[in-house]
Amino acid sequence: SVFADQPSFCGVFKVDEGWWLVAIRNDLILAEEDVVFANEEEAKAFTGLDNARDALYLMAEICKIGIVKVGQKGSYVKRGKEPTIHVGISPHNCIDTTGAGDFYAAGLLYGLANDFSLEKSAEIAKILSGNIISVVGVKMNDSQWTDIKNEIAML
Predict the structure, then answer these.
(1) Angle at alpha carbon of residue 55, lines to 49 and 61, rounded to 5°
(2) According to the model, what pLDDT value does residue 94 have?
């Protein structure tokens, strides 16, 4: 661990309106098998670094996979010393961002659980998060799910 010589650290992340997640002692929380998802501000707060790109590199050293979501610019995904993957955004009309981060995480983890490449897993994450923002709330209709499945099948 990058912080192995330090007894503890504290990371504070805004999870939702009025809710904060506090992580203390990374040696108890993060291991080489963990995946850390963060937006730009969370990544900077987590690492103590001033820019998201450097934060991503450090996150990928601390755990197995680091992901920094950068809003309209998409996301950056990094595993260890492998090249950084940049994934853009899906071309859907943004109506409501509720659930976008959760659907992104679900897509990436689904891909990894099915032994897809990290790049394909990130593309699935993009597809899911891009679709959920095109509806109000977090419920998509059967037609939309069919479209998502077809889009994933074409990857």
Answers:
(1) 120
(2) 92
Report how far residue 63's alpha carbon sits from residue 57's, in angstroms, rounded to the nearest whole number.
10
Q: What is the pLDDT of residues 15-73, one digit of tens each?
A: 455 544 444 444 445 555 688 899 998 888 888 899 988 999 999 988 889 999 998 89
- Give the span between the Cα atoms of 119 and 108, in whole angstroms: 9
Q: What is the largest distance, in Å, between two alpha-carbon atoms of the chain?
A: 53
pLDDT above 80: residue 137: yes
Is residue 59 within 8 Å of residue 13, measured between CB atoms? no
